[in-house]
Design brief:
The complex is a heterodimer of chains A (about 290) and B (about 180).
Chain A: E1 4-6, H1 11-15, H2 17-30, E2 34-36, H3 46-49, H4 53-69, E3 74-77, H5 80-93, H6 97-107, E4 119-122, H7 123-131, H8 133-139, E5 148-152, H9 161-164, H10 174-181, E6 185-186, H11 205-221, E7 226-229, H12 232-249, E8 257-259, H13 260-267, H14 272-275, H15 285-291
Parallel strand pairs in A: 1-2, 1-3, 3-4, 5-6, 5-7, 7-8
Helix pairs in contact in A: 2-13, 4-5, 4-6, 7-8, 11-12
Chain B: H1 23-28, H2 44-47, H3 60-69, H4 72-77, H5 89-93, H6 100-113, H7 119-131, H8 139-147, H9 158-167, H10 170-174
Helix pairs in contact in B: 7-9
Classes of the chains: A alpha/beta (about 290), B mainly alpha (about 180).
Chain lengths: ~290, ~180
C-alpha cells in the first residue's frame, strides 16, 4: 500500500478529536501509513467556494502542491468538507491546463507550483479500496454483531457526482460493506443518504434543526442502536446537534453517534477511553454495554 | 375549490423593464454556472431538496427560473441563495445536467462581490484569513487534544494564505465595508 499525505482539516482536530485519535490508532493496526503534512492552509471548502471560486481553487492547490513536494501522489482526508474542496480542486486542475495556469500564477506569489498530479481520496475509500474488507474482518477481535447501525455517509463523500465521477449517487453504497465487515448490521432506513443540513448551521438555525430532526426521527423509526458516519460535520450534527434538537423540540432521541474509525477501533478491541469516546456529548455507555 | 381556499399569495407582477436579459449569459460565462441555460424548469431539483421541503423561501427551481428571467436584483440580494445546504442532490437528479448547486454557488460569488453575503459567512472567511482556521480555535482544544494523546494543533501558513487572498482579489471584497486591513 502506498503512503498517504494526511490532510486532517480543521473540524476534526478542533471539534472531533476522537475521530483523529481513532483514525490514527486504527490506521497503525491496519498498516496504513500516513505522512504528516505541514505548513497547510485551509482546504477552502464550499463556504469559501461560495464566496470566491478562484480563491478556493488557489488555496486548495497550494495544499496539493505540498503533497507533490513530499514526493507523494495521494492525499487522504477524513473530512467530507476537505474532500469536496480538495477533490474538486484536483479534478478541475488535473485536466484543465488553462485554469491550472491561472492558479499557478497566483501560487507564484508564495513560491509554489502545482503540476496536476495529485489524487485526493477520502479515508472511507482507503478503508474500502486499499485496506479491504477481508483485512478489516481479519482484524476484528470483538464481534459487533449485536449492533444495528444507521449510516450517515455525509453528502460530499458521494456528491457532486461530476466530481466523484459516478453516474448516480442514490444507490448501493460501499459504507454498508464497511459496516458489515465489523460484524454490525447496516439498517436500511428512510432517507439515509439525505443531507443533515450541517452546512447551514451558520446561516439558519431553524432550518438546520428542522432538517436534523427529520433525520433523527427517520433513524429512530429504523430502530438503530447508533449512527455511524465518516463525516465530521455529520458527527457534530448528530452528537452536539442532537442535543440542540432535543432541547428545542422537547424530545428525547438518545442516539449515540460514532465515526466509522471509532466503530472499527471498538471492533479491534480498543477501549472507549483509548478511542476518546468520553468526548462525545451523547453518551455511548448503552452501546458499550450491548457490545459487552 | 372555492376562491377563498386558494392559499398561495398572489405575487406582484414581474415587469419586463426590471429584467436584465443578459444576466443568464453573465452566469453562463462562469465555470460553475455554465449549464444554466439548459434548464427547462421541470422541478426535479425542488422536489428532492431537503431545505425546500421545510421552507417556502428556498426553492432551487424558483431561483434558477428567476435568474433565467433576468431578475438580477431579486436573485442576488434576496438572501434565498444562501439557504442551499450544498448537498448536491439536485445536481444528481437534474435531467438536463444544469449543475444547480454549482449555479447557486456561481450566483453566490456574484452576490459576494456586490456585498450581499450573510455576516456569519463573512466572519468565517475573515477568521480563515486572519488565523488560518475557518473554525474558531481555543486554548481548551489543545488541552483536550493533549489529554487524548494528540499533538498540539498544527501551525497554519497564515502568511501564504494572506498573499493568496490578496492575489485573487478576495481580500478586497472581504473587508470592503470597513477600513482596509
Amino acid at each position: 500500500m502506498t503512503d498517504f499525505a494526511l490532510f486532517p482539516g480543521c473540524l476534526i482536530p478542533t471539534r472531533v478529536p476522537s475521530y483523529e485519535v481513532s483514525l490514527r490508532k486504527t490506521a497503525e493496526r491496519l498498516g496504513v501509513n500516513f505522512v504528516e503534512m505541514e505548513n497547510l492552509t485551509c482546504c477552502a471548502p464550499v463556504g469559501v467556494l461560495s464566496l470566491d471560486y478562484l480563491t478556493s481553487l488557489s488555496l486548495g492547490a497550494r495544499n496539493l502542491a505540498i503533497v507533490e513536494e513530499m514526493g507523494l501522489d495521494t492525499m487522504c482526508t477524513p473530512c467530507n468538507g476537505c474532500f469536496e474542496g480538495l477533490d474538486r480542486t484536483a479534478t478541475i486542475l488535473n485536466k484543465d491546463p488553462e485554469t491550472l495556469e491561472k492558479v499557478n500564477e497566483i501560487l507564484a506569489e508564495v513560491g509554489k507550483e502545482y503540476n496536476g498530479t495529485i489524487t485526493v481520496r477520502h479515508l472511507a475509500e482507503i478503508y474500502y479500496d486499499d485496506v479491504g474488507i477481508d483485512k478489516i474482518k481479519e482484524m476484528m477481535v470483538k464481534p459487533l454483531d449485536a449492533l444495528t447501525v444507521g449510516i450517515r455517509p455525509g453528502c460530499h463523500l458521494f456528491r457532486p457526482i461530476e466530481v466523484i465521477g459516478i453516474d448516480y449517487s442514490e444507490r448501493y453504497f460501499f459504507l454498508d460493506d464497511l459496516i458489515a465487515a465489523t460484524g454490525a448490521e447496516s439498517v436500511y432506513y428512510k432517507h439515509r443518504l439525505r443531507c443533515c443540513g450541517g452546512l447551514l448551521r451558520n446561516v439558519s438555525g431553524d432550518i438546520v434543526e428542522g432538517i436534523l430532526r427529520k433525520r433523527l426521527i427517520e433513524l429512530k423509526e429504523g430502530n438503530v442502536d447508533c449512527v455511524v458516519t465518516v463525516c465530521p460535520l455529520c458527527f457534530l450534527q448528530f452528537d452536539l446537534g442532537q442535543k440542540l434538537v432535543e432541547r428545542k423540540f422537547k424530545e428525547k432521541y438518545d442516539l449515540p453517534t460514532l465515526t466509522y474509525s471509532e466503530l472499527l477501533g471498538l471492533g479491534m478491541g480498543l477501549s472507549a477511553e483509548e478511542l476518546g469516546l468520553q468526548t462525545h456529548r451523547i453518551k455511548v455507555d448503552k452501546l458499550l454495554a450491548k457490545i459487552g | 375549490m372555492s376562491e377563498g381556499e386558494y392559499k398561495v399569495p398572489i405575487k406582484e407582477p414581474i415587469k419586463t423593464k426590471d429584467l436584465d436579459p443578459d444576466f443568464k449569459y453573465e452566469i453562463a460565462d462562469t465555470y460553475l454556472g455554465r449549464h444554466i441555460t439548459a434548464c427547462f424548469k421541470c422541478g426535479a431539483c425542488t422536489g428532492g431538496c431537503p431545505v425546500g421541503i421545510l421552507t417556502e423561501i428556498y426553492k432551487p427551481r424558483q431561483i434558477i427560473g428567476e435568474a433565467l428571467l433576468g431578475m438580477r436584483e431579486k436573485v442576488l440580494t434576496g438572501g434565498e441563495l444562501w439557504l442551499c445546504a450544498t448537498c448536491y442532490t439536485c445536481e444528481d437528479r437534474c435531467p438536463q445536467k444544469v449543475n444547480i448547486t454549482d449555479v447557486i454557488i456561481a450566483l453566490r460569488n456574484m452576490a459576494f462581490r456586490e456585498g450581499h453575503t450573510p455576516e456569519a459567512l463573512i466572519e468565517q472567511a475573515r477568521n480563515m484569513v486572519e488565523t488560518g482556521w475557518i473554525q474558531k480555535t481555543t486554548a481548551s482544544m489543545d488541552k483536550r487534544r493533549e489529554e487524548l494523546g494528540l499533538s498540539r494543533l498544527p501551525k497554519m501558513a497564515v502568511e501564504d494564505m494572506q498573499k493568496i487572498v490578496k492575489a485573487t482579489g478576495f481580500i478586497k471584497y472581504l473587508y470592503k465595508k470597513e477600513d482596509k486591513k
